[in-house]
Amino acid sequence: MTTNRIVLITGANKGIGLATARELARAGHTVLIGARDPRRGAAAADGLAAEGLDARFVHLDVTDPATAAAAAELITAEYGRLDTLVNNAGVARDWQRSPEDLPVEAVRETYETNVFGAVTVINAMLPLLRRSPAGLIGNVSSGLGSFGFLSDPDSPLWDVATLLAYNSSKAALNAVTLVYARALRESGIKVSSLEPGYCATDLNGHSGTATAEEGGRRIARQLGEAEAGPSGRFFAGEGGTYPW
Length: 244
Hints:
Layout: E1 6-9, H1 15-26, E2 30-35, H2 38-50, E3 55-59, H3 65-78, E4 84-87, H4 104-129, E5 136-140, H5 147-150, H6 164-183, E6 190-194, H7 212-228
């Protein structure tokens, strides 16, 4: 991405979110560490600051609209605009669980963070993104949200195609991406889905084949590609794009 951007990343106190924050801060951007836990969020921001990076903690629980509104007020007062929003916060409550064994409450909880949380934050930050000369929204998705992969028995993702809550929530998030890309086209704000790849994080019990640091580098690269190219794309972790 171009230098000196104000970037907000949700769920950025650990894992891929923190790795993405570090990559973007190293590239010269001001990074706002969105996190629901003030202690962990502040510690993550302080750690980046200790490395000489421009980072600060912003209290933000994506399932609580009041914190999103308060975060927007803080960013307005301190920076006056937001250039990039990365909706990274996500949960998986159905890892290694079959659809018939998954309580519907777990599906609702997954959607609250992965889908409704992203919409909540986007709407709270849109006035700030409109003040940017090149507003950008990146929704961190997964190849598991691609209908092309979910319906393809030859897909490398076929073994985990039965994750009801996670996969369907990422498919819904992809639809959210396309709806906002269309709605915001005239404003100049670009919206795309991003994917870090299968990274070892708390979300999957650290079973991933790539590191969180690799995932952060991929997201940072995709953000640059999203800024430079057309809106409404679904970037793949290994490069290129996914089928929707």
